[in-house]
Amino acid sequence: xxxxxxxxxxxxxxxxxxxxxxxxxxxxxxxxxxxxxxxxxxxxxxxxxxxxxxxxxxxxxxxxxxxxxxxxxxxxxxxxxxxxxxxxxxxxxxxxxxxxxxxxxxxxxxxxxxxxxxxxxxxxxxxxxxxxxxxxxxxxxxxxxxxxxxxxxxxxxxxxxxxxxxxxxxxxxxxxxxxxxxxxxxxxxxxxxxxxxxxxxxxxxxxxxxxxxxxxxxxxxxxxxxxxxxxxxxxxxxxxxxxxxxxxxxxxxxxxxxxxxxxxxxxxxxxxxxxxxxxxxxxxxxxxxxxxxxxxxxxxxxx
Length: 303
Prior knowledge:
Blueprint: H1 5-53, H2 59-74, H3 85-97, H4 100-131, H5 133-147, H6 151-162, H7 166-190, H8 194-202, H9 207-218, H10 220-241, H11 250-259, H12 263-291
Helix pairs in contact: 3-12, 4-5, 4-7, 4-10, 4-11, 6-7, 7-10, 10-11, 10-12, 11-12
């Protein structure tokens, strides 16, 4: 039986509707897949861009070392005052035979111990002062006054209190690491978006949960800045700490080189401090990148 024109038209329109609906349902899936692919590719592109730019950081130190080597051999500077890098390398080789790794281990243990103590105290007091106006009014004036005291001014007092054991050395390093971390966390908490706090209060979060789930994650960028600054100061305070009757450590090598008029030993110790400081800072920076991967900022964009 032949189909009527109206039935054919209805069948044709149904097919058009089915095909249109298929297109509209498949298009969001395609767009979503593309977006997911872009999000997945972003960390890969960022890591590749960082790796491709990593060699730029070697240009300046290699150029400075090359200039120092040439200047010493040509006679632009006196080699007894500024030994060439080749002589410093020979000095490091001799120090390795004389127990250099023991000095590095002693200094690293002191820095890590003091830094850990200072960081824990700084995070605790930073949360307290950042979240409470009463705590801020109580602690802030004292902390700001203590922050202005130079590192060497603590040395005689710590010697009187704790003697010449490891305790005054670790305490001095903890003091140096405390204030940058404390200031970074307090600044980060004060800059948290007020709407996030109000949102947490609307959901009935307690003060502890609010600090753990909203305030601290939002303040992480400032906290990591404080952690890296505190780590740098911990290595700086190490030299002052190892002036306290130390018989091992990189600070001891500095003092020994000065007393024996050995600029090559002094420069070798300075080079070791720079390398160790850079390695620990790179480790902390790697942790910062991992923990702040969610951050949509200029630092996380692909180059």
